[in-house]
Specification:
Length: about 140
């Protein structure tokens, strides 16, 4: 029971020092704490002070990548625009939905049916010889 009371007192003092702006190293020295585990337990649940946060150097690029993805750009286009790696773009925008793609029908080249391989005979169903889709014909 004595150990628990002593730890609770240590915890209160550690939290007070942390809120006063002291670093973890300073708290360890002032309170005579020897291990990081003890300090971690004493400060459990206490958020770090804002001055300890590192700024993210690429926050502006991340925001721009998200804007570009919302506009429908693919990863490789965002990579080319921003000059960052594909894995970085993926990490920044992986929670966003994929842009709409062309359907199969929208991306197809229409076949030409009046000449070449497929021709209609007197209004009947077309009779096809050779290739039935558009594109270059074999020679």
């Amino acid at each position: 029971m004595i150990k628990k009371a002593a730890f609770l007192e240590l915890r209160e003092r550690a939290i007070a020092l942390r809120r006063a702006g002291k670093s973890r190293r300073e708290i360890k020295e002032l309170l005579g704490i020897g291990s990081n585990q003890t300090l971690n337990e004493a400060l459990r649940g206490e958020p770090p002070q804002p001055w300890t946060w590192r700024p993210n150097a690429k926050d502006d690029l991340r925001a721009r990548a998200r804007e570009l993805r919302e506009q429908g750009l693919a990863y490789h286009q965002i990579v080319a625009e921003l000059g960052v790696s594909k894995s970085t773009v993926s990490a920044w925008v992986n929670d966003m939905s994929r842009p709409d793609r062309l359907s199969y029908e929208g991306g197809r080249i229409p076949a030409t049916t009046t000449t070449g391989a497929c021709a209609s005979m007197s209004g009947a169903a077309p009779t096809c010889t050779g290739r039935s889709r558009g594109g270059p014909q074999p020679r």
